[in-house]
Amino acid sequence: MSESVVPYQLYRWVKYFVYAMLSLNIWFFLAEELTSAQFALEADDSAVMGVQLFSATLDTVAWVILLLLFEAETAVIPDHRLRGLLRFVIHAVRMLCTLAICLAFLGYIAEWRTLLSSLPMTQTACSLVSDNWVVMLKLDEFIPLTVDNCAQLGADTRRVSGLEHVLAAPAGLVAAQRLALVDVINSGAWILVVVLLEIDVRVLTRWDEISRFAVHSWKSVKVVLYTTLIVAAIFWGFKGNFLDFWDAALWLFAFVFIELNVFEWQQEIRDDPPSAQPNG
Asked: How far apart are CA 244 and CA 191, in angstroms?
């Protein structure tokens, strides 16, 4: 095996390892949200609707499929085969994934807005033990209100008015609100990143001449978006949300590979303009 082949093979193995870890995160998010759903269901069905308990799982599934489609189009399937039925199926699946991602984004917004409204308690927490109340420790993490833990809730405990039978300590509620807002920002930034990548793949590859100002502006927007995503990952890391931090870090690595795929694909089109036709 030549020296030039070894780095390429290593690059491919690292890339597919990251993709595999992202796929595995689907099960981690599902397990986490199933646990929180168990307690929310004990409180009231509307609590499940209020906090959008399975939005992270839906979001991750859709993003993983979309990521694999980008990989297939830019690095796996030859351009001349991306036609007819195959092209139609890929575009149809992409549209479904995009719809799921947008619904998840709206779910993050709804969850954040739900947590913004709270009311002071008018009675002691221990008096509510028999009424199927739950305590929100942090975002999407609940425990049942019991005789053992009700005394730990002080007089400043808040009732989350947007949810049914949910209590929270002020500090925990503020932390949940901030995490929910970061979810909204992170989700919106990723949607914009993919919009830019779609324009890269579908539009910019058609243009022979692009002004330096346009290219510079395009790259600047990407830098701002990726910086936002890095800051969100760091925030999750410091707040102890390891799964969110790990998932965010993996996605950043994954999109480095996708950006490289797009760059190489565009370079191939420039080097061989007669035979290179855009896939979209």
From this structure: 17
Token reading at 268: 């191939």
Q: What is the DSSP letter of 72?
A: I
Residue 279 is assigned to a structural domain of this protein: no
Summarize pLDDT for 80-100 with one digit per residue, the tens.
776 778 888 888 898 899 888
Task: Tell me the C-alpha distance between 166 and 243, whole Å.
Answer: 24
Range of the domain at 75: 5-271
Number of domains in the chain: 1
Q: Which of 103, 66, 89 is nearest to 201 (CA)?
A: 66
Q: What is the CA 67 to chain-centroid distance, rounded?
A: 12
Give me the mean pLDDT over the 169-180 stretch: 89
Q: Contact 79/276 with Cβ under 8 angstroms?
A: yes
Cβ contact 202:280 at 8 Å: yes
Cβ pair 66, 194 in contact under 8 A: yes
Q: Which of 56, 51, 10, 12 is nearest to 30 (CA)?
A: 56
- C-alpha to C-alpha distance for 273 and 54, rounded to whole angstroms: 45
By the 8 A CB rule, do 168 and 117 touch?
A: no
Q: Is residue 57 part of a domain?
A: yes
Is pLDDT at 238 greater than 80 in this prediction? yes
| DSSP notation for 75-112 | IIS-GGGS-HHHHHHHHHHHHHHHHHHHHHHHHHHHHH
Computed on alpha carbons and rounded to an integer, the radius of gyration of the chain in Å comes to: 23
